[in-house]
Design a protein that fits this description.
The complex is a heterodimer.
Chain A: H1 2-35, E1 38-41, E2 45-48, H2 53-94, H3 99-107, H4 114-125, H5 132-137, H6 151-175, H7 179-187, H8 192-220, H9 224-229, H10 237-246, H11 251-276, H12 278-285
Antiparallel strand pairs in A: 1-2
Helix pairs in contact in A: 1-11, 2-6, 2-8, 2-11, 6-8, 7-8, 8-12, 10-11
Chain B: E1 14-25, E2 28-40, E3 45-49, H1 56-64, E4 71-76, E5 79-80, E6 91-94, H2 106-116, H3 121-134, H4 150-162, E7 168-172, H5 180-197, E8 200-205, H6 208-214, E9 217-222, E10 225-230, H7 232-237, H8 242-247, E11 252-257, E12 260-262, E13 265-271, E14 274-279, E15 289-294, E16 300-302, E17 312-323, E18 327-334, E19 337-345, E20 359-364, E21 370-371
Parallel strand pairs in B: 3-8, 3-9, 6-7, 7-8
Antiparallel strand pairs in B: 1-2, 1-4, 4-5, 9-10, 11-15, 12-13, 13-14, 15-21, 16-20, 17-18, 17-20, 18-19
Helix pairs in contact in B: 2-3, 2-4, 3-4
The chains are: A mainly alpha, B alpha+beta.
Chain lengths: 287, 374
């Protein structure tokens, strides 16, 4: 009896979460997959016809937006690595007893709604807002200069939104480095720069990898930043999908685009993992 | 290369001149090393021994360059290195937790220092190979540190430091994490390697047994100062302070007043017929208060009053008997101290042991008493 209980226990523990996933993840996925192969309209209803042209047609129509999204996502991740690494490094090695406080400060913006934060960015960046107005008045910037509506504004918004997701994993990786190992590098004739290049950075790679995963994927499929900070020139694939679902009620095409985006992201992530040899890196991190 | 370890050559490998090191704690300067003058000879196996917080690790870290003295100077081979960065010092360290590079193989770990010094590829390969042979790790070049046992990691750490032929090798409690058997094995191994490579070893430990076994000289440290500096025998047989007597092995310490002295010996009367006889330098006057140390293994324990005792004699009551296999350890309450420890070699009849509560007599030869700090 005890034996039965013991063998069953792990499965019973997984059950609630498993059911949740099945109901709210697997079922919608299958529904969406089927939807992406249907034809029809909202009035007359949709019928499953295996209409794979949904994929080719939507891709042909919106490849610009898809590629733009991936480029924005990639640029965002790269900027984030550059911005987040020094912050994470400083907290991990010089944070002392206040590490938790600094991490909390990094997380603090999350306590304000995502949309509100982005709207306040819009107010900051607007042509006669607090940032640009004084600069224009002082003659530092030309009158016609604008930030809002450019790719720069969208990427800046994305970077701001996802900064904590890059800081935290890098911090965790750095925090786990034994300071004696860094001292050992210094003892073995490595300058501070070489110690960083040969020891600290390689040991922080798993964190950078996780950070890229956690920022590139959501940044590429984001639709709020471009909606609020961008223009028709910066439309991202997330906006297209959202418009098709909520405004145009073109469900099959929206589903097809969603799956295309997912497939592209998955392929990207896996080849990225391959390239970096993440398995090895992960093993080191898990020592 | 072959300089006699105990007689420092003209140029010490490492020298401290009036070094002080304070740490800031809550805005207050707390001294870790109060005042240090020290010369470590070329090729010497030198130990810094003391309890935790005595300043031994700080002293070692000042040699490596991880800490800078608050005052005073540190010299390596006669060159002032005070304030010189660790990577620009010709010393290498074996860390307490080994601190191997977890993302590198054994080969890459050991080659790290040579690569930084821009040694040629083929030279690196040869020297790493030779060093791995010395530490018996040949064939493990491609292993990752995490795939190795503690003892093996220890050897990698040793090889990684020694392969650079540093002017001195610094070892920070390198055997602390190993189990007893492996530790004893590594002690012998370390000594062998040191003889083989002829490099100055500076060994930090709180384990007096380890220090006594391996060192040419030992500096016993306590609260930021060197209490005594000398050979293992000096330190064990002739402890300079009460702290050293207590920290190195077990000591019985007797406080007393010189009752009379004669021909280089002082006698402390401890009761009717009971006395402690101790050799003293000339000029120790009658009436002076002194401390006498005597090691437990030097004392003979008698169940009946022995006749014709030449030396010290005390009587007492056994309060504890602990059987240790090779010896029996007694604790005896005497007129000169309530917890006198006596190690009695189990060389005689096994049945002839005193029991708890029994009245016994302790005797030892005059030369086995040592006056502390006289």
């Amino acid at each position: 009896m005890d034996r039965v209980k013991r063998t069953l226990a792990p499965y019973l523990l997984v059950l609630p979460g498993g059911l949740w996933l099945l109901l709210f993840f697997a079922v919608p996925m299958v529904t969406m997959l089927s939807l992406s192969l249907q034809e029809g309209d909202v009035v007359n209803g949709f019928v499953f016809t295996g209409h794979w042209q949904n994929y080719t047609e939507s891709l042909a129509d919106y490849q610009t937006q898809l590629i733009r999204s991936l480029v924005y996502g990639a640029i965002t991740s790269i900027i984030l690595i550059v911005l987040a690494f020094p912050v994470a490094y400083w907290i991990a090695f010089y944070g002392g007893r206040r590490k938790a406080t600094y991490l909390f400060l990094i997380m603090l913006p999350f306590f304000v709604s995502f949309v509100l934060r982005t709207i306040s960015w819009r107010m900051l960046l607007t042509d006669d807002g607090v940032l640009l107005h004084p600069l224009k008045a002082a003659g530092i910037l030309p009158d016609g200069f604008n930030v809002l509506g450019t790719s720069g504004a969208v990427i800046a918004g994305l970077v701001y939104s996802f900064l904590p997701f890059m800081v935290l994993p890098i911090y965790v990786a750095l925090e786990r480095i034994d300071p004696r190992v860094v001292e050992a590098a210094r003892d073995l004739y490595a300058s501070p720069m070489t110690s960083f290049r040969k020891v600290i950075f390689p040991l922080a790679l798993p964190g950078v990898f996780a950070g890229v995963l956690m920022t590139f994927v959501p940044a590429s499929s984001d639709y709020v930043n471009s909606e609020l900070l961008g223009s028709s020139e910066t439309t991202m694939i997330g906006q297209v999908i959202q418009a098709k679902f909520l405004s145009n009620s073109d469900y099959p095409s929206a589903s097809a685009l969603s799956f295309t985006l997912m497939a592209v992201l998955l392929i990207g992530v896996f080849s990225y993992a391959r390239m970096l040899g993440t398995e090895d890196v992960m093993k080191v991190a898990a020592r | 290369m072959t300089s006699s370890p105990s007689t420092p050559t003209a140029q010490p490998a490492i020298e401290f001149a009036s070094v002080r090191k304070d740490y800031l704690s809550h805005g207050e300067a707390v001294p870790a090393v109060k005042s240090l003058d020290l010369a470590i000879a070329q090729g010497e196996f030198f130990s810094l021994l003391g309890p935790s917080g005595c300043g031994k690790t700080t002293t070692m870290r000042m040699i490596a360059g991880f800490e800078d003295p608050t005052a005073g100077k540190v010299f390596l081979a006669g060159k002032d290195v005070t304030g010189v960065a660790p990577n620009k010092r010709d010393v290498n360290m074996v860390f307490q937790s080994y601190a191997l590079f977890p993302h590198l193989t054994v080969q890459q770990n050991v080659a790290f220092g040579l690569e930084r010094k821009k040694v040629g590829k083929s030279d690196i390969k040869r020297r790493v190979g030779e060093m791995l042979e010395i530490v018996s790790l040949t064939g493990m070049e491609r292993r990752q540190p995490r795939e190795m046992s503690g003892g093996q990691q220890q050897r990698v750490a040793l090889a990684r430091a020694l392969v650079n032929h540093p002017r001195a090798l610094l070892l920070d409690e390198p055997l602390g994490a190993l189990d007893l058997k492996l530790r004893q094995q590594m002690q012998i191994e370390l000594k062998r390697i040191q003889r083989e490579v002829g490099i100055t070893f500076v060994y930090v430990t709180h384990d007096q047994g380890e220090a006594l076994t391996m060192s040419d000289r030992i500096a016993v440290m306590n609260s930021g100062l060197i209490e005594q500096l000398g050979s293992p025998r000096d330190i064990y047989e002739r402890p300079a302070t009460r702290f050293v007597a207590g920290f190195i092995g077990t000591s019985n310490i007797i406080d007393g007043r010189v009752s009379w002295s004669d021909q280089g010996y002082a006698v402390l009367e401890k009761g009717p017929g009971e006395r402690v006889v101790v050799p003293v330098p000339a000029g120790v006057a009658v009436g002076r208060d002194i401390e006498v140390s005597v090691r437990p293994e030097k004392i003979d324990l008698h169940r009946t009053l022995p006749g014709n005792v030449n030396g010290s004699l005390l009587s007492g009551t056994v309060t504890e008997v602990v059987y240790h296999g090779t010896s029996t350890n007694y604790t005896v309450a005497t007129t000169a101290g309530s917890d006198f420890v006596v190690f009695d070699q189990n060389a005689h009849d096994a049945e002839d042991v005193a029991s708890r509560g029994e009245r016994v007599f302790l005797t030892w030869a005059p030369q086995h008493s040592y006056p502390i700090g006289v």
